Structures are given as C-alpha cells and as structure tokens.
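Look over this record before class:
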Amino acid sequence: MTTDSVPAGADPRRLLSDVRALAHRVRLDQRLTWVALLVLAVATFVAIPFDYVGMDVRCVNGGSECQFSRDGVLYYWPAALLIAYTAIAFCYVRAARARGLGARVLPYALTGAALAVVFTTVWLLARVYLADPPTEPFPGWVMVLDRLVAPAGTIGVALLVLARLERNVALLVFTLGYLAVVLVPIDFGWTIHSSVRAEFIPQQVINGVVLLLGAAGFAIARRRQR
C-alpha cells in the first residue's frame, strides 16, 4: 500500500486504464500454461509403456477373437495424475512467490485431483459390472462418455478450469481443440492392427503431441510478451 496522493489534474479515465493494464500484466505474469501442458504431455507419453505392458489380452479361436483389459491404465494414471497436478501447483506457487504475486492454481489442481478420483472409480465400477463384456457394441454416446472420464478426457476438463482461472482465451481455444481430438477421436488415419496391445498407441501419441505442441506454443508466446 502507498500513501502517495493522486495528482489533482489526473485523468480518471487514464488512471482506470492504467489499473486495468496493471491487472492484465499481473494475470500474464501468473500464467505458466506451458508448464502445465508440458507436465501433462510427459505424463501422457510415459503412460504408453505402462499401458502396453499392463494390458491383459485373452484370445480364442486361434487368435481371431480377443478380449482385453487395460489394467496398466489403473496401475499408472491415478498416481501419475496426482503427481502431475502437485508438480504443476508447485511450479505455479513458486513462480508467483518469486514475483510477489498470489497463485490461482489451487482450484485447478484440486479439480484435476478430483477428476482423477472420478476416473478411477468409474473404471473400477466398469470392471465389476462389465466382467462379461456385451456382444453388441456400445452406443456412440457411451463411448464419448467413456473417453471423457478417461485420463485424456479429464485432462481436458481440468484445463477448462485453468483457462477460466487465468481468463486465458487462447488456452480455452486450445483445450476445445484438444478435447475434439480426444473425444472424436481424431487419429489422422494412423492405426496399428498388427497387435491388440498396440492399437491404442496412435491415439495416445497424438494426444501427447497435441499437449507438447501446445506447451511449445504457449512458451513462445510468453517469451514474446516479456
């Protein structure tokens, strides 16, 4: 706080403009969007070997019919997401304190952690109630919901919260694009049919690349703003 008086001839509109400019600058200094996206991209890429090795595949009729259970997802993602959001929150708080600012990242980190719990609970319930998978394919809306509560989907939902906290329109646009890639899903024609274990890899790699490109883009934009 300061006790300096405002000059009598000061233009109120200019003062208001200066206050708004300062508030905008503070919001920019609080943003570490690229750090969040980079941490989530790393978590996405590291998940691939866990998912591949941890997948339980059972084939019959000479391998023509296979059932699989992605146990590796449950072994890796709950802990990985909690660690990732803790690391993101730590980076935000440390950077904010270095600048003498407050950090708004806590609601985002708590949302991410809560969604990790939701994802784990839903997948465990699905394993209990779908012990014998149905012979008919699920409706499209069920598959979209399944992708939304999967780790990649919950990452996107939590990023929407971060975009709101940071008032970051660019992050909002990026997140909507990321969710489109995850929920549609968009694989750009890249598929692997040689192994049941490897069929998920293209989409996982694409999700990670989108997050990585987003991290690079926001890092470059932040550097230019300085």
Summary: Residues 1-6 have pLDDT under 50 and may be disordered. The longest helix spans residues 71-98. The radius of gyration is 22 Å. The beta strands are 55-60, 65-70.
